Amino acid sequence: DVVLTQSPATLSVTPGERISLSCRASESVDTYLHWYQQKPNESPRLLIKYASQSISGIPSRFSGSGSGTDFTLSINGVELEDLSIYYCQQGNSLPFTFGSGTKLEIK
Amino acid sequence: EVQLVETGGGLVQPGRSLKLSCVASGFTFNNYWMSWTRQAPGKGLEWVASITNSGGSTYYPDSVKGRFTISRDNAQNTLYLQMNSLRSEDTATYYCTRFSLGAHDYWGQGVMVTVSS
After folding, report:
1. Residues of chain B with pLDDT > 70: what percent?
2. DSSP class of residue B13?
3. Residue in B closest to A35 by C-alpha
4. Residue A47: which region, alpha, beta or left (left: phi > 0; alpha: psi -120 to 50)?
5. Nearest chain B Cα to A1, which residue?
6. Does the pLDDT value for residue A78 go beyond 90?
7. For residues A45 and A70, is the Cβ–Cβ distance under 8 A?
8. Contact in structure between A21 and A60 (CB atoms under 8 Å)
9. Least enclosed by CB within 10 Å: which of A43, A62, B14, B41?
């Protein structure tokens, strides 16, 4: 199984900061790596697909990069509403797996 | 607007069965793979099952293989998850998702399943 390791587990940030979240795969997943945001008491939603492709309706401050085993989700100018847990997920091979998440806290 | 509405959750005893349903609208249901993903209380996300658009193939992780069955009725735009031999570790919120080329691009509101005596 492909193990996705997300870091850090928790990140405390100041509004306006640019931040980067990491997701590392135990083996190559090409660009079949997707990012999700889960706000408190809500269902997850797709933020970025195929490592770097934007999703309609998602603010432009969210971007993704990477391929193979190393991936990054960046938020350019964190806002209060970004308080969430962020998960990565690989769709390259069965079983489809998720990372354990990065919790974003706002200072 | 894409909508996925799950029903069928509840409290069930260990070893018993439960069937979840998900009614889809706002897109051409039979053009898409569909999936179920779950989240135990306070925990992360776990993929549970996927089914091809025709229903001809299904996929599961080892944790549920042989106990859970995903199916669909394309005439009724409905996805199902039959869960047998339930265990306490199956306690979770179950989400129905549209599954497009490996990405869960739309999620339902979720339905809670509690396995307890």
Report:
1. 100
2. -
3. B103
4. alpha
5. B61
6. yes
7. no
8. no
9. B41
Contact, A94 vs A38, CB < 8 A? no
* Contacts of B24 by beta carbon, 8 Å cutoff, 6+ apart: B2, B3, B4, B34, B77, B78, B79, B96, B98
List b or e across B3-38, with b for residues whose CB sees 16 or more CB atoms inside 10 angstroms.
Answer: ebebeebeebeeeeebebbbbbeebebeebbbbbbb
Residues 6+ positions from A38 with CB-CB distance below 8 Å? A44, A45, A84, A85, A86, A87, A101, B45
Would the CB atoms of A98 and B47 count as touching at under 8 Å? yes
Could B101 and A36 be called an inter-chain contact, meaning their C-beta atoms sit closer than 8 Å? no
Mutate to test the interface with B, among A4, A43, A85 (most CBs of B within 10 A): A43
The CA distance from A70 to A22, in Å, is: 7
